[in-house]
Design brief:
The protein is of the alpha+beta class and 392 residues long. Helices cover 50% and strands 17% of the residues. It has helices at 19-36, 40-46, 51-59, 78-91, 93-113, 116-127, 243-279, 291-319, 325-350, 361-368, 378-391; strands at residues 7-9, 12-14, 133-136, 152-156, 159-170, 177-183, 193-199, 205-210, 221-232, 236-237, 281-282, 285-286. It is globular. The two termini are 34 Å apart.
Length: 392
């Protein structure tokens, strides 16, 4: 597969990997072979989030890919970020998902909307994975309807008292700090929500039920619970009432993350199926030689290529500071749906073996489905796209 759209020049489009992308891809492949492949199925079975492996990725600079050097990060662009998540997703969707959530949600929110004091305090710890980050928007019963959230913060002097809960939160248990969006105004008011940075150990702040998931099982997902949790006003991100608007902007970038994750899982599933189809023989020849299998591979490869183009286009626009609401939704919607289709066909090509844990197809299949749900369902992406089209 070729790399996708990186930038435009006077002579046209450049589809080549840049030097940083080549370095990152090679580094992740070597890291995966040594630190992830040997135990990833054990983590999947036990639903263990491998914190130490996550911290080793931090040592490599992958937990602060987009964070500027001055705050201890790698200082790369979204182009390198897409490559990093994609390469990690080819190996293990769970680890790539955790990396994406840490980078684009918690760290990304503080980087985009934190004041200088907040950035200096939190970004160096997050960029190195000394601290692991969580991000809380979703609640029970208010997934896509974020404006209807029940978690409330009430002003009390120079503190805010928070009560409620968030669910489906990546790193809710292992996280050292969370960015949480809570209601400070009326339900349904897009200016009635505010974001706070809350550290682990803050009285009244704890984790709750850990989810038993179909896929992405080594990426920890659990509840965050607030019981009269007192947070100083200095922990507020931006101003009162800006939380929802901030969250939507964070999710624009987060959609590039999930598109990249989808792309990685799809590539992993495709490459495993292609390799197997060349090795598996039936009726005296490799099954790749049968038209039924060849057509499946052709469809898989074509759709991956298209998803890659959409993802890198959104990344390129993000790099240039352009609005990417529509393009991010394009990439996330298409790449996630492609991911599920490719992973499904991967199992089909493996046949009976694709239904066993002795081969990688079943894990790609289980992991793929979250991509059409997390950080905005496919239906929400279509809603976003339609609204943007009607504005034009």
């Amino acid at each position: 597969m070729s790399s996708a759209l990186l930038n435009e020049t006077a002579t046209g489009m450049n589809f080549s990997l840049n030097e940083n992308q080549v370095m990152i891809a090679d580094m992740i492949r070597k890291f995966g072979k040594e630190h992830i492949y040997p135990k990833m199925m054990e983590w999947d079975e036990s639903q263990e989030f491998p914190v130490e492996v996550f911290k080793k990725l931090g040592d490599l600079g992958l937990m602060g890919v987009l964070v500027p050097h001055e705050y201890g990060g790698s200082g790369f662009s979204y182009t390198e970020y897409v490559t990093a998540i994609t390469e990690l997703g080819k190996i293990c969707g769970s680890i790539a998902l955790s990396m994406a959530a840490h980078n684009s949600l918690c760290t990304g929110h503080i980087m985009a909307f934190g004041n200088e004091e907040q950035k200096k305090k939190y970004l160096p710890k997050l960029a190195t994975a000394e601290w692991i980050g969580a991000w809380g928007l979703t609640e029970t019963g208010t997934g896509s309807d974020a404006g209807g959230m029940h978690t409330v913060a009430v002003k009390d002097g120079d503190h805010w008292v928070i009560n409620g809960s968030k669910n489906f939160i990546t790193h809710a248990i292992s996280g050292n700090v969370a960015v949480v969006i809570v209601r400070t105004g009326e339900k349904g008011d897009s200016h009635g929500m505010t974001a706070f940075i809350i550290e682990k150990g803050t009285p009244g702040f704890r984790s709750g039920k850990k989810e038993n998931k179909l896929g992405m099982r080594a990426s920890e997902t659990a509840e965050l619970i607030f019981e009269n949790c007192r947070v100083h006003e200095s922990q507020m991100l931006g101003k009162v009432g800006e939380g929802f608007v901030q969250a939507m902007k964070v999710l624009d970038g987060g959609r590039i993350s999930i598109a990249s994750l989808s792309l990685g899982i799809a590539k992993g599933a495709y490459e495993a199926a292609l390799k197997y189809s060349k090795e598996r023989t039936q009726f005296g020849k490799a099954i790749s030689q049968f038209q039924a299998i060849g057509f499946k591979l052709a469809d898989m490869a074509t759709e991956i290529e298209a998803a890659e183009l959409l993802t890198f286009k959104a990344a390129d626009m993000k790099n240039r500071g352009l609005k990417i609401t529509k393009e991010g939704a394009f990439a996330k919607y298409y790449a996630s749906e492609v991911c599920v289709r490719v992973a499904t066909e991967g199992v089909q090509i493996f046949g009976g073996y694709g239904y066993t844990k002795d081969f990688p197809a079943e894990k790609y299949y289980r992991d793929s489905k979250l991509c059409t749900i997390g950080e905005g369902t496919s239906e929400i992406q279509k809603l976003v796209i339609a609204r943007e089209l009607l504005k034009e």
